Every structure is written in C-alpha cells, then in structure tokens.
Amino acid sequence: MKDIVESRARLHGLFNITMTPFSADGAFDPHAFAENIERVIGLGFDGLLIGGTYGEFPAMEVAERVALFERAMEVAGDRVAVMLCTAHSDVRVVRELTSLASRLGGLPMVTPPYVSEATDDQIVAFFHDISPLSRTGILIYNAPGIGVNLPAALIERIAETEGVVGIKQGDLSPTVIDVLANRLKGRIKLFCASDLAFLGPMMAGFDGLSSTNSSALPEIILKSFRAVAAGDAATARDLHRSWYPLRELARRFGQPQTTKAAMNARGFHGGSVRPPLSDLNGPARTAVEAAMTKITSA
C-alpha cells in the first residue's frame, strides 16, 4: 500500500493472524513463515496481520521484529493488505517500527502506550504523535491483554486523529460493539480482533476480522466469514459451530500455543512458542490433535 487512501480502500475482509514459527531452540524459521503466508494468500484471504500479540512480539527483540516485517512484505508483496504490529512499551521503538512498516508498504498497528496510569489526554496525544510517521495511516490496536482497554468514548476521540484509518477491537462485549458499530461505522474501518466470537460484530456492521485460528483451519474460517459477509447467517453459524472443539481448547490452554499445536497436527508449520509460553505436550497436545481430526474429517 502506498498511502492512506489505498489503506482505507483495502482494509476490509478476512485477515490471517500469521503465527511466527520458532524452532524448539527459539530460532525464527523464515521458510516456514513464507509457506504459511502463501497458504492463506492462495486460499483467497484479504490480508495478513504480522507480529501481533499472538505473533509473540513481546518475546522478540526489535531487530527480530524488523526482520519479520521485511520477510512478510518480501513474501506477500502487494498481493494482499498487510497489518504490521508496531506496539512497544518504549515510544522510541514504536516510532522506529511505525516508520519502517509504512516504508515497507504495510499498515502500522499501534497499541496505546502500556505504561502505568497514562491519562486519556496522554493516550490521545500519543496517537497524534505517532500518526504522522506513517504515509499509509495507522490502525488502533485495542488489545486488553496488554493491560490497557480503551473505552468506546476514548476510541472515538482517537479516531478523530488525522491518519487513523481503522481499529482492531479486542473488547468484544456487546455494548461496546454496538457503540462502535453505530458511532464509528463509515468514519474508520472496524475490525473484530478475535475469531472466537466474530459473528456478532460482523452482523453489527464491522468491516473485517483478524483470525488466529485460520492459521490451523483456514478453509473453514474463510467459508464462515464469506457466508456472514454475504448475509447467510445460517451457513456462517453452522460452520462456526463445526470448529467449536478447537475454540474450547484455545480458551483452556491459551494462545498462540493451541493454534500452533493445531497447525502442527495438520502438518502446517506452527513450530514452537517462546518463553514464558510453553508448547502443549502430553494430554493437552493429544486433545488438540483429536479435536483437529474430528473437525477436519467431518
């Protein structure tokens, strides 16, 4: 993507949250990463999300994240839109990664600063400061898992920032979704951050979904998303129900380790997670493997 106009035009649909495949000793596998990207592009996904929380960016050095961005854009090129997560606790790093993501043709995805007791005004000022660094615009990443959950009223303030093209919304409580869908629809692009419960936000009018489990079940989740986008709620519901066993395990065992185990069970390149996370082994891995066999053979 070359500018904000193009980012706005292409920011819709189903985006694969691409796992970062590590070997057992923690090394990044660029060849496996490329193969995973090619799989979802080949199936017709609309975009990629690289290096987010489930891409394990907190466990990566800045130089590794730079290499990850470069590899992703080298493989994807301009075939699909690419979100590149530039979050960090150090604003200097956010600046560096945001500028790089834009230069590479990706859309920087920026969390609020996760420092102790930042005020609303300071959070708004932060986005005002970061946004001009990107010619492709920026995407607000509201990720409650990092310890900061932006209320709807604050999101609306941030959305007034020039250069903000959308939000990846992690708080999917019904009231918040209702407010965002009705207050911000048409002003910025609205992305549901989780495939565990995406039917509601999409039916409310969200523009897209970023999906972790599509790394393991790309065909089913793509069909489900296309059905709901076409207004075929019954088909979308039935397809979504079909992979409930994996969602149940993801909630029990955590992410991205469950998705990586599911990918490995299918012969995809999930690889390992980095500490402090740990790979699923023993009964947990067996449960994931059994669930994948049940889902993919149905």
Question: So, CATH architecture?
Answer: Alpha-Beta Barrel
- CATH superfamily heading: Aldolase class I
CATH class, named Alpha Beta
Overall structural domain count: 1
Throw out a few tags for this protein.
eight-stranded parallel beta barrel, 47% helix, TIM Barrel, alpha/beta, single chain, 298 residues
Describe this structure in words.
- By secondary structure, this protein is α/β, with parallel strands linked by helices.
- Helix 9 runs antiparallel to helix 10 and helix 11 packs antiparallel against helix 13.
- The mean pLDDT is 96.
- It has one domain: Aldolase class I (TIM Barrel), CATH 3.20.20.70.
- The chain has 13 helices and eight strands.
- It is 47% helix and 13% strand.
- It has an eight-stranded parallel barrel with strand order 1-2-3-4-5-6-7-8, surrounded by six helices.
